[in-house]
Amino acid sequence: MESMKPLDERGTFEWEYDVEADVLYLSHGEPREAVGIDAGDGLIFRYDEVSERLVGVTIVGLRARQQAKSGSS
């Protein structure tokens, strides 16, 4: 697989956190259609095939990760 181009330095990041599902969605700019690449361990990279750029990241189990790091339940 070819390496992805880095995020474009222009623009802003949008984010949304789903409390019930414990999922954080990060998008570079407005969220858009993209291919999801499962990196394992609850990380999904969102890739725009047209621009060949990473356009977002989804993190599943964010709260659980923080709790595991801090040792609390």
Walkthrough of the structure:
By secondary structure, this protein is mainly β. It contains 1 helix and 5 strands. It has one helix at 62-70, and strands at residues 13-18, 23-28, 35-40, 43-48, 53-60. β3 (35-40) and β4 (43-48) form a beta hairpin. The longest helix is centred in the C-terminal third of the chain and has 9 residues, at 62-70. The protein is globular, with a radius of gyration of 14 Å.
Can you give keywords for this protein?
73 residues, 1 helix, mainly beta, five-stranded antiparallel sheet, single chain
Assembly state here?
single chain
Low-confidence residue ranges: none
User: Largest sheet at a glance?
Assistant: 5 strands, antiparallel
**Rg computed from alpha carbons, rounded to a whole number of angstroms:** 14 Å
Count of β-strands: 5
Helix and strand topology:
Blueprint: E1 13-18, E2 23-28, E3 35-40, E4 43-48, E5 53-60, H1 62-70
